[in-house]
Design a protein that fits this description.
By secondary structure, the chain is mainly α. The chain folds into 2 domains: 80 residues, no CATH class; 64 residues, no CATH class. Helix content is 49%, strand content 10%. The protein contains 6 helices and 4 strands; from the N terminus they run αββββααααα. The strands form 2 sheets. The protein has a two-stranded antiparallel ribbon. A two-stranded antiparallel ribbon has the order 2-3. A hairpin with a 2-residue loop joins β2 and β3. α2 packs across α4 and α4 crosses α5. The longest helix is centred in the C-terminal third of the chain and has 23 residues. The radius of gyration is 16 Å and the shape is globular.
Length: 151
Amino acid sequence: MAELLARFHEAAAGFCVETDGKNDRWNIEMADPEPGDLLCHNDVCPENVVFQDGVAVALLDFDFVAPGRRLYDLAGVANMCIPLDTAADAAVWGWGALDPVASGNRFVRRRVEPGEQAFVDMWDRMGGAGRYERRVAWFRRHRERFLEALG
């Protein structure tokens, strides 16, 4: 997914990003808080990637595209896909639980509950709350492998 995002950034580098300082052209909810001159996807997660034979080949869902920095966009992928710390270590810094599945669940629920149709449809199509419960269980089963890979 990171390689696919890098290819997206390369393709977007030639696109002229114009801002008027009001951010009225961009959805800033998930956007980089720092100024940037590159269009970033800001929502690269497994649901927004097309995989072919296990390889990420295309991005979907561009409703959060906004100017930003490459590193911030890449960090968003990590935030949504990789548990980066143990709960105990995160609590020392007051970060709370660093659980990308839980934060993704909260994000989608904030849109499902008031009835945003696209999110309601996705919620229903992908299995609703049961899907998030399965993802939490999967991350818990593989947590040690992630931590080992991170060093």
